């Protein structure tokens, strides 16, 4: 009885976001990282919070942001997607080859890419739910399949994107990159899906406890499949933006930056629990921005790019350790 | 579920064989297919050469098995192999006359230490193992590239490399001897009380803790052993293929795939170590078979992906029949 009372009290408190709210913590961490970066860069005579720099940070977080948003959907349902990196590569290649430098083929190419990524998401979801293959292995297997296709058919950049399509990647409205609006749009859309639709509630339910969700009448398989379609679709959009920035398709577009593992890291950095059921898009966006700000600081300081990975790894571990301390009472996760 | 430990003691062998039944079938089928494509494959020398090639992955799979069965992942082993190879090279570069046993000991100690760090992050800081070892992987990879700028110097002396490519007695390679030793040790470990507490921890951490298992110690132990296994694999890989800053790239995924092919449940609590090592042999046999059929290196990964998904799917089907699970209990423990 007392436990129930304590829990309701907890819940009442939780309505007013306190310092321990995961999203608040993420943005506090972002503010901290920014402040630290500001001090170190200024101390060395650089300028950190300039308009160009902030716009650059935005520009650089778009692609990872899109992938991480999709990954959030998959992780919230207790799944994850390791196939996004190769999917992004294929998307850039298919987009550039279908467009072939012609303005008239931009729209069909975008539809082809989105259709293809939705199909890959569908396959991921079906293999996980209907064939009962663990998500890690299922999406790793799909990643291998895509990788084989890429390596068998492409050795270097292919296709060409018309100039009109390159506006998507590089143009700005005022100071803000067009692609940042795409990211903002995707964030709002996914937020609406998660917080305002039945599918969204079901995704949290499935991630919280699949068994209980099923017994409560949620069609868990459909929910997981939908989450994977959303995840792959965001990867497809990320692929389109990369194609527009590169001007062509590239077999290494998704894999070189390791969007598969980086996106999972960003999601977890954003406070979403890897086991599913808790978290959301706001935190993920914060996690992506933290990584982008770190990158920008390192660039300004001229830190060796390889050393960046060392710090990134340490930051990710430290952040998740902090969240774990906060959530210790809330339950364990593997 | 609590009956699991008792069951395993009572009918360990039968259950172990059943648990991994699909992987033994898969391995047999692959070996038959190889025999058809290349009858000479089963001559002792070539079979031993195959075992030698497989040894690093089998050892990694044994270490990864310990982590997976107790409910975690270790994504850092691939980068740990790379670090091991590069550290060996740089050590010999710095101290040209260094005795090889000292360098091997250094690598093993280093591997165990990195594993211990993983274990501490997971057990004490309560970071999920996926993230802890992913972070460790970024740190190790970044450190190696930062240190060597992508091209490690130095060379490995012959007596060190003999471990990876030389023979111990007659035509029996060192790698096979080491692999057998690691395999035997892991099997004995799993049969001891330690093995049962591992399975219990992976099956239900809370229940195990309430039953008196010191979960934190278990985590420290399995990650340390996994790091040790990665260091052993690094010694073999360095000897077999020489120095590269890419030496272990992707090995973590192959090791996890091998363990899962062997029927172990990701999320812990079920699986056999012999089957996990058979899974590693199956993967290697698959690569050999694809090579024999002249499948281009590129398409190799497509076939690998298809077979892994199919094998795990079929394995899941058989597994539930063998254990006669009631229809209400679905496989748990994802991600």
Automatic annotation (TrEMBL), chain A:
<keyword id="KW-1003">Cell membrane</keyword>
<feature type="transmembrane region" description="Helical">
    <location>
        <begin position="264"/>
        <end position="294"/>
    </location>
</feature>
<keyword id="KW-0812">Transmembrane</keyword>
<feature type="transmembrane region" description="Helical">
    <location>
        <begin position="107"/>
        <end position="127"/>
    </location>
</feature>
<keyword id="KW-1133">Transmembrane helix</keyword>
<feature type="transmembrane region" description="Helical">
    <location>
        <begin position="225"/>
        <end position="243"/>
    </location>
</feature>
<dbReference type="Pfam" id="PF02653">
    <property type="entry name" value="BPD_transp_2"/>
</dbReference>
<dbReference type="InterPro" id="IPR001851">
    <property type="entry name" value="ABC_transp_permease"/>
</dbReference>
<feature type="transmembrane region" description="Helical">
    <location>
        <begin position="48"/>
        <end position="69"/>
    </location>
</feature>
<feature type="transmembrane region" description="Helical">
    <location>
        <begin position="133"/>
        <end position="150"/>
    </location>
</feature>
<feature type="transmembrane region" description="Helical">
    <location>
        <begin position="75"/>
        <end position="95"/>
    </location>
</feature>
<feature type="transmembrane region" description="Helical">
    <location>
        <begin position="24"/>
        <end position="41"/>
    </location>
</feature>
<feature type="transmembrane region" description="Helical">
    <location>
        <begin position="176"/>
        <end position="194"/>
    </location>
</feature>
<keyword id="KW-0472">Membrane</keyword>
<protein>
    <submittedName>
        <fullName>ABC transporter permease</fullName>
    </submittedName>
</protein>
From TrEMBL, chain B:
<feature type="transmembrane region" description="Helical">
    <location>
        <begin position="100"/>
        <end position="124"/>
    </location>
</feature>
<feature type="transmembrane region" description="Helical">
    <location>
        <begin position="130"/>
        <end position="148"/>
    </location>
</feature>
<keyword id="KW-1133">Transmembrane helix</keyword>
<feature type="transmembrane region" description="Helical">
    <location>
        <begin position="169"/>
        <end position="194"/>
    </location>
</feature>
<keyword id="KW-0813">Transport</keyword>
<protein>
    <recommendedName>
        <fullName>Autoinducer 2 import system permease protein LsrD</fullName>
    </recommendedName>
</protein>
<keyword id="KW-0997">Cell inner membrane</keyword>
<feature type="transmembrane region" description="Helical">
    <location>
        <begin position="301"/>
        <end position="319"/>
    </location>
</feature>
<keyword id="KW-0812">Transmembrane</keyword>
<dbReference type="InterPro" id="IPR001851">
    <property type="entry name" value="ABC_transp_permease"/>
</dbReference>
<feature type="transmembrane region" description="Helical">
    <location>
        <begin position="220"/>
        <end position="243"/>
    </location>
</feature>
<keyword id="KW-1003">Cell membrane</keyword>
<dbReference type="Pfam" id="PF02653">
    <property type="entry name" value="BPD_transp_2"/>
</dbReference>
<feature type="transmembrane region" description="Helical">
    <location>
        <begin position="21"/>
        <end position="42"/>
    </location>
</feature>
<feature type="transmembrane region" description="Helical">
    <location>
        <begin position="62"/>
        <end position="88"/>
    </location>
</feature>
<keyword id="KW-0472">Membrane</keyword>
<feature type="transmembrane region" description="Helical">
    <location>
        <begin position="255"/>
        <end position="281"/>
    </location>
</feature>
């Amino acid at each position: 009885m007392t436990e129930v009372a304590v829990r309701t009290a907890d819940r009442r408190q939780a309505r007013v976001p306190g310092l321990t709210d995961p999203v608040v913590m993420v943005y506090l961490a972002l503010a901290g990282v920014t402040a630290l970066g500001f001090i170190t860069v200024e101390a060395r005579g650089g300028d950190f919070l300039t308009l160009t720099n902030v716009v650059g940070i935005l520009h650089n977080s778009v692609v990872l942001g899109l992938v991480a948003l999709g990954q959030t959907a998959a992780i919230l349902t207790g799944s994850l997607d390791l196939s996004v990196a190769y999917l992004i590569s294929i998307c850039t290649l298919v987009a550039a080859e279908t467009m072939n430098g012609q303005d008239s083929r931009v729209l069909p190419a975008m539809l082809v890419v989105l259709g293809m990524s939705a199909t890959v998401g569908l396959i991921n979801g079906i293999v996980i739910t209907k064939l009962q293959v663990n998500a890690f292995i299922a999406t790793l297997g799909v990643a291998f399949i895509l990788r084989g296709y890429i390596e068998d058919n492409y050795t270097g950049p292919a296709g060409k994107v018309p100039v009109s399509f390159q506006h998507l990647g590089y143009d700005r409205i005022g100071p803000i990159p067009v692609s940042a609006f795409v990211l903002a749009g995707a964030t709002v859309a996914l937020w609406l899906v998660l917080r305002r639709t039945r599918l969204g509630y079901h995704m949290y339910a499935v991630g919280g406890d699949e068994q209980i969700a099923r017994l409560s009448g949620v069609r868990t398989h459909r929910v997981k499949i939908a989450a994977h379609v959303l995840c792959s679709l965001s990867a497809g959009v990320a692929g389109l933006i990369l194609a527009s920035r590169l001007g062509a398709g590239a077999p290494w577009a998704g894999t070189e930056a390791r969007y598969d593992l980086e996106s999972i890291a960003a999601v977890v950095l954003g406070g979403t629990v890897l086991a599913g059921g808790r978290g959301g898009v706001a935190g993920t966006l914060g996690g992506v921005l933290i990584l982008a700000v770190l990158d920008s600081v390192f660039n300004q300081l001229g830190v060796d790019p390889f050393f960046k990975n060392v710090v990134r790894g340490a930051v990710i571990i430290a952040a998740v350790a902090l969240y774990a301390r906060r959530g210790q009472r809330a339950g364990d996760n593997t | 579920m609590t009956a699991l430990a008792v069951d395993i003691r009572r009918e360990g062998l039968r259950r172990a064989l059943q648990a991994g039944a699909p992987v033994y079938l898969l391995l047999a089928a692959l070996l038959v297919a190889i025999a058809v494509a290349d009858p000479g494959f089963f001559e002792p020398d070539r079979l031993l050469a195959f075992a030698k090639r497989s040894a690093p992955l089998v050892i990694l799979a044994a270490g990864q098995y310990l982590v997976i069965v107790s409910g975690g992942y270790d994504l850092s082993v691939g980068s740990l192999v790379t670090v091991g190879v590069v550290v060996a090279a740089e050590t010999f570069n710095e101290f040209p006359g260094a005795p090889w046993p000292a360098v091997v000991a250094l690598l093993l100690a280093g591997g165990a230490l990195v594993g211990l760090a993983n274990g501490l992050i997971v057990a004490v800081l309560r970071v999920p193992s996926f993230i802890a070892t992913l972070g460790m992987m970024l740190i190790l990879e970044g450190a190696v590239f930062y240190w060597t700028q992508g091209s490690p110097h130095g060379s490995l002396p012959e007596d060190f490399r003999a471990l990876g490519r030389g023979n111990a007695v007659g035509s029996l390679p060192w790698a096979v001897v080491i692999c057998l030793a690691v395999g035997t040790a892991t099997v004995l470990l799993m049969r001891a009380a330690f093995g049962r507490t591992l399975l219990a921890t992976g099956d239900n951490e809370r229940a195990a803790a309430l039953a008196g298992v010191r979960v934190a110690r278990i985590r420290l132990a399995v990650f340390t052993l996994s790091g040790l296994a990665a260091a052993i694999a690094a010694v073999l890989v360095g000897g077999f293929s020489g120095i590269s800053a890419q030496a272990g790239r992707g090995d973590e995924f192959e090791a996890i795939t091998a363990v899962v092919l062997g029927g172990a449940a990701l999320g812990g609590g079920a699986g056999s170590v012999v089957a996990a090592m058979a899974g590693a042999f199956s993967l290697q046999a698959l690569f050999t078979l694809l090579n024999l059929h002249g499948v281009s290196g590129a398409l190799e990964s497509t076939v690998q992906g298809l077979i892994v998904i199919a094998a795990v799917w079929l394995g899941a089907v058989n597994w539930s029949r063998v254990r006669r699970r009631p229809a209400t209990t679905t496989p748990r423990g994802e991600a």
